[in-house]
Records
---
Amino acid sequence: MGTSGGYTGAGGKAGKETSEGLGEWLGSLPSGSSGGDGGPESEGTKKPVARLPRKVVKGLVGLLGPSGSGGGGVATGGSVATGGSGRTRTGSGRSAHRLVGVGGRAAAGAYAFLHGDAAGLRLLGLDYDELQELDDPIEVTRRIVDAVCGHQTNGTLEESEERYVAASVADWLLATSERGESPDVDDIARYAIAAIVTEVLSSELGAILHDHPEMVADPEEELREAAMVLAGQAEFNASGPTAEELTNAIEEGIEKLREIYGGGS
């Protein structure tokens, strides 16, 4: 998963609430397996849908709150969290606005490529004919991520999260197109929200595993499924596939989750 283990948890009330809830959730998962008792599923049975505890979601939407409230913006004060890599962040140190922005732009870039929208790609500094000649979805995704996040990397956790979200959204759109599917704007926005949720929670979960290495459960599949379930509750008023419209739709979805769960209060 993206940046699991990158640091030892966000500070502030939202970070504490998220980490505590994830610790309880992690302890409830089957040891070493994402399916039931660790063995193969019985014929005719289905694994229960993964759902994140309310405590986790409330803390999460606090971390993804507007800049300056709930710890979602780049913090200027509060507790300091330092990971095994030596990276330090104050408060949550995470900019939800930037995560939403890269998700929206990456989605718009992939959508423009799939629909032959050369003008839309030029807005990101990309050339449609050049991408077509690559004939390689992985390389197309990389070009989109570089256009959205920049070619130069500085190795920070924030940048890693942003690149993961951009790559996840672009790759999903290209993969669904290869399967002959054509997701609408709401589907794209929900997937982007799920990618953001998965990456933020994987960072927080990495903190727990760092502090409790004896926990051998592998919750990645559950985390992704739970993020999709959560994103499914979001509502949108999106009208088109431009970067601005997709970004607004993603922000609206996160705000809807904030209203439902009361995060950031």
---
Amino acid sequence: MRSKRMRVLVTGIAAAVIGIYAENGFSDEKDSAKDDPVQIAVAKGLQWLVSVQGKNGGWGQDGGETSYVRQGERLESGGNDVANTAVVAEALLHTGTTATRGEYRAALQGAVEFILEHVEQSPAEGLAVTDLQGTQIQRKLGPYIDTFLTSKLLAEMDGTMPDVKANARVRQDLQKCVAKIEKAQLKDGSWNLSGGWAPILGTSMASQSLFLAQAKGAVNAQMAMDRVRTYTVATAAMPVAPPSGVAGGAMGGIIGGVPSGTAGGVGGRVTSASESVEVTAAAAGVPLYKTAQELEQLSRTDEDRQKNAKQIKDITGQLSDARFVTGFGSIGGEEFFSYLNISESLRRTGGAEWKKWNGEMTAKLLKLQNEDGTWAGHHCITGRVAVTSAAILLLTADREPAPAVQTTLTKR
């Protein structure tokens, strides 16, 4: 009973903190935007995202047109999809908008409705929450990245909706997503499913969603969380060779003794999105992706940080290596999502490493922003919707309320 009361209290605190932030946080800082390049950049990015939202509440790969970073690039899909919509919703949520407050409240509400409808229409069996296949973000992060990103978003929004009915709906859909994720976990504890170029980032999102959902008291996913933690500790001890074989730092190379860079960019045979086939830890052969996932997983709680202090120190030591930080050789969406994992981790540990990383990342992102307020990846995930959202999350990593809420949750 005490545990139940504490979960209710924590959920209420989380909602209150987010609500206060929406009223007094990012929005009220607009007065100082003229003197703050980060505020200017974030505001432009948010304005562009909201301007290209679909009438059905969703977002697609690139806001309706081809990326101008790679002229003539073929859009993998038309229309709007769940994964891109979930990433935009995260950007809105982490810059002060909630389901009840904020300048872009209507946009967030539309996004959540779009996502919930897809979850509710999906069958209970199977990992998918959408029947749309072949999107750019799926081909790069795995065919079920929609489910992982949705689960993470719903876990964060759990308990913050306008009324009891809406909260119950989010909770029910979150539990459906978590059940799908638990059933699909591979024997090694990961979700490195065939069909994506860098599936380790999907594993990262799946794990984070379980952690957040359990912290909110929405589920009991301890067994799955223990398994992915064990997996991560094991892979952290396995070196990943630098990519080789293709100009610009490519998909070849050996990962844990297994060749990668096969057809489709996946170590092992290429399969349909309906199959659950285990692949190597970082099929793209890029150390950044794998190591960033490990750093985020191993640093979540005070206990984790104490227990994994040596591994964390070893990983953070690599951040001074420009080749390691560059990842594939140029900055694409996979790099942006890996940087998010690193920022989440270093913010928890604090200190000089965090200040140095955040300062350098901020300067890099400000230089990369396009005139229209967007960011676009230079390889793989090039779509402006996902990359702009990730850039906004990175730029606001040091000023969002989520860390305080999550710390409270993990110490209950």
---
Amino acid sequence: MDFKKMYQEKLVTAEEAAKVVKSGDWVDYAWTTCTPVAVDKAIAARMPELTNVNFRGGILMWVPEIFKIENPADHLTWNSWHMGGIERKAIAQGFSFYSPMRYSELPRFYRDMPEELRPDVAVMQVAPMDEHGFFNFGPNASHLAAVCETAKVVIVEVNENMPVCFGGTEEGIHISHVDMIVEGDNPTIAEMGGAAAASEVDEAVAKLIVEEIPDGACLQLGIGGMPNAVGSLIAKSDLKDLGVHTEMYVDAFVDIANAGKITGARKNIDKGRQVYGFGAGTKKLYDYLNRNPECMSAPVSYTNDIRTISALDNFMSINNAVDLDLFGQVNAESSGIKHISGAGGQLDFVLGAYLSKGGKSFICCSSTFKTKDGELKSRIVPTLNPGSIVTDTRANTHYLVTEYGKVNLKGLSTWQRAEAIISIAHPQFRDELIASADKMHIWRRSNKI
């Protein structure tokens, strides 16, 4: 095949590409740094003449132009697989909605979805075509191959700044499967700001977790201050021969790797490779991932598969929570009915880590938070607030960690759980939590805190 000739034959302007979008279409905008820019602007220019255009995407790192049109709710819906701050704001405008699903299911969902839900158009930023005719998805293998396989029209928007991320399967698309090629303005790859400096609480939680990690452990870190604090502490530790198998590749992994702590030498599978479903962070992260054969960009159906996770010995899963209750239910998705993020892969890693030989799952959070009015509130509550989402059921939680300690809930009955959980609550709230536990018949007089 003459790939250069095919490239020229499929090369169109962003405006020409935007013309394929029709009222009633499902349009897939990919994911994080792959979200289109030039074609998005061209589609936005057409939106006033269109109605009921349904977009899919997730973790937006900048505000798309389609969000900026007048009265977007009259013309479109945004259906997110995982929400960030930009999408949360759009909820209040009446056109942004969350699609609840375990992230690991996305590739299969696309491939099995009914014809009427399949993408009419898929458009995404990619790295420039290589000599073999492939466009790389950058740090976003995730579910994008499945999106492209099922879309009626595939449009790629070439960005020379997109890092090329090696993988093994489903990290890119061949030109023979692309319908249109747009050469964008090569915008700088959007950065997800590095976490703020770790607080004393973050550091206290991190210390409690790191002392549980053995040499040769395989790490999964969620996003946020606490997982980053754990990463920073690991980088300064004496730990060695660590491995990486994670949903999201974050800046903390770069720091741990540069400190010489990551070799992957003891991994049961993918030995020597740092495996991830997608990556988002600062330029430091993108530069590290670019053409790095040590790093393996893989579909989320592999990275987040409980069977894959459990095959890795000493798997350490470290994730955040919004709040949790005395039964051990964990909410990591909402504040009551106010949506925050999504299910993601947290439950997959909670389950997979526990099934791993020597594995441990840690859910961590500060014991308290302050409201806008400065009032101190407990993150540990008697029962989750109405509308709060149960991300991890009480049957699945393993370790819970706050700055006041860590507890292992496996095998504990309800009164033992209540005692253990209250023991890591802020002291100011322990008496009222005990009173609530007593009313709910999950407290014994012999319990001690």
---
Amino acid sequence: MFNQKIYEPSDKMISIISDNYSLLESLGRFGINLGFGDKTVREVCEEQGVDSYTFLAIVNYSVNGYRPTEGLERISVETILHYLKASHEYYLDFQLPRIRKNLKEALDENDNLARLIMKMYDRYAHEIRQHMKFEEQTVFPYVEKLLKGEVSEDYDIQTFSKHHGQTTQKLHELKDIIIKYLPSNTERNNRLTYTLYDLYKNEEWLGAHAEIEDNIFIPAIQRLERQLSQNDVSVKISQMISKSPEGSDTLSDREKDVIVALVQGMSNKEIADHLCISTNTVITHRRNIARKLQIHSPAGLTIYAIVNNLVDISSVKF
């Protein structure tokens, strides 16, 4: 059941942990060490170099399902990226091996069904590793490039979002098989029950991890992509304005005529008929325009035409 309290920077860190002891695991993923006394969330985060707004966004989502619909611009991508990387490390290097060890000790290795259960667990662990390794090798480096101001034309976070599904189905099946079909004895029952409880907790953790990625991480990255895209357009406009008329990339009069026709919505054939040239010549002009201006979209050419007084803004349809 969700805790209905929305935690604030002025709340004491110990109070949040006391209310939600499961958050103890999250502290290390943020890089927050214990021993913070009675300090507030703001004080602890400032001392340990963690963005408090992002910390509380994840905490409030984890404990009460509160999804930030506003203030995404305040989310620190660096902080959430660090959190996700540390979460992967914790799960892959500690949780998966520990659960396997406990499960193996709880099962009778001479029992055929027990051996099949271990195989099921290993397949599940492999699937989780593949899922997280993909994020580490593809998604996280992409985000790190965005943080450096590098925009990719071959990938975006929406591509990841479309293929980002739940990874707990095999784990759910494994738990059900153990409970329904695995005979147990008194000697092994306590250990098996403990391991089952651990499997349930980890299924819950994986679900929450995926939801944090879907509802906080991905929206924050989408906002960063939009911001960088807008900045990129602004830079290109500045470059257009600052180009010297005498420069080697100055547009010819005919190329300017092609731009005006494109802004007016004409097709290549219509431009050719309008300017009394061939369609192939129009295509050549368009290639030269794109090379000289480094603009490939109709919207970009429209902005260029307006800024350089090739067309009147009142004549442009938006």
